[in-house]
Amino acid sequence: MEWYYILLIVFASLLVLYALLLLAIYLWANSLFNKRQDKQHGIKYFAASDFDDIVATPIEFRNNKNKVLRGFIYQVKDIELISEEVIIFFQGIGMGHLSYTKEIVKLARETGRPVIGFDYQGCDASDGKKTQGFYKTLYDAEAAIKYVETTFPNHLIHLVGHSWGGFLSANVLSVYPSKQVVSVTSLSAPNSMPDLITSFLKDKAYGKWVIWLFTYLNEGKLAKITTVKSIVHNEVKTLIVHGRSDNVVLYYRSGRLYLNAAKDVNHIEPIIFESKRHLVYLTNEAEAKQEEMNRNLATYAKDETKRQAYIKTIDWDAVTDDDETVFAAIKDVIRMSGHGKH
Question: 37 exposed, middle or buried (CB, 10 Å; 0-12, 13-18, 19+)?
Fold first, then answer.
């Protein structure tokens, strides 16, 4: 056999192996968003009952797959609510909305608006053996908006989300362009699934296009949705908050893109924090403590006795201390795009 045939076979074999490797990476990353997501055993999750001034009213509604999604409307007791406005909060990956109870409560207290927190399909209190996945969970976000439109037909709607929830808040209007939504707040959001996965590949551009192909074949037209496109074209007041040191949703694959997009439009307000990482809504000190906590929990993962002993030492208020600067910015966007109170 001629040498160039051998070289061609070797090259083709390497190309196939690389494509298979990228497929394996894609399937692994995709599985993170598709599997059932429940609270971690033994971890403290705040609930409305932990706050004397908060009342939580149970709600449920169905998504496009007829699965029941469950959550609560959180509001402060005995105060005059801002009339005809409501906030919908979208959580990040890993568990239900109770992992963000303190943030939901803070939004209710500081804005005077009721806040809806709910679990996606396949998350905690909601039905489903698995979630709909990175993109199709947009239909759960759509279902939440439709619930508000039906229950509160004259209310203005403000969307707030973190990480995966930040992607949903920024992109759901590209799936369902509700006229009642007047503001979007997106915290630490990925631009797309291919961008998120390419971050694991150390920014190899040729890998991104293969990942994009896998995404398109799996998701169809939803794969065309990106946060940059959505926030530019949706034309509602949009707050983007990102940390330049984000180690999960990398800045150059996300925050930098939003910053550039904001140069050409007036309705996008980007805020980039130099030292913040992925949990951009926390203080730097709280995020550092939470990262330390997660490392320790991983260390004791195979020893439940030591794990539970360590959990008893955690200062839950310290690891969930919210950043006043971030919440002041969220409050301003909601106030300016709503009825202007608080």
Answer: buried
- For the whole model, what pTM was predicted? 0.92
- Phi, psi angle pair for 317, to nearest 5°: -70, -35
In the chain, the DSSP E strands lie at: 54-62, 68-76, 85-90, 115-118, 156-162, 181-187, 237-243, 268-273
Distance CA 334, CA 342 (A): 9
If you write DSSP's letter for every residue of 269-294 in order, what string do you get?
EEEEESS--S-TTB-HHHHHHHHHHH
Task: Kindly indicate whether the domain formed by 35-191+226-281+324-337 is annotated with CATH number 3.40.50.1820.
Answer: yes
Question: Is the CB of residue 94 less than 8 Å from the CB of residue 120?
Answer: no
Residue type at 89?
F
Query: Does residue 185 come out as left (phi exceeding 0), alpha (psi in the -120 to 50 range) or beta?
Result: beta
Q: Is 233 exposed, middle or buried (0-12, 13-18, 19+ CB in 10 A)?
A: exposed
The set of residues, in sequence order, having a beta carbon less than 8 Å from that of 273 and lying 6+ positions away, is: 241, 242, 243, 244, 280
**In the predicted structure, residue 177 carries a pLDDT above the cut 60:** yes
> Is the Cβ–Cβ distance between 333 and 183 less than 8 Å?
yes
Pick left, alpha or beta for residue 124 (phi over 0 → left; psi -120 to 50 → alpha; otherwise beta): left
Of all helices (H) and strands (E), which one includes residue 217? helix 205-219
pLDDT of residue 166: 97
189: nearest Cα among 119, 224, 239, 262:
239
Tokens encoding 41:
């055993």
As a whole number, the mean pLDDT across the chain is 89
The domain locations on the chain are 35-191+226-281+324-337, 282-321
Dihedral, CA of residue 20, residue 25, residue 28 and residue 29, to nearest 10: -140
Band (pLDDT 50/70/90 cuts) for residue 164 is: very high
Q: Please tell me the predicted confidence (pLDDT) of residue 17.
A: 74
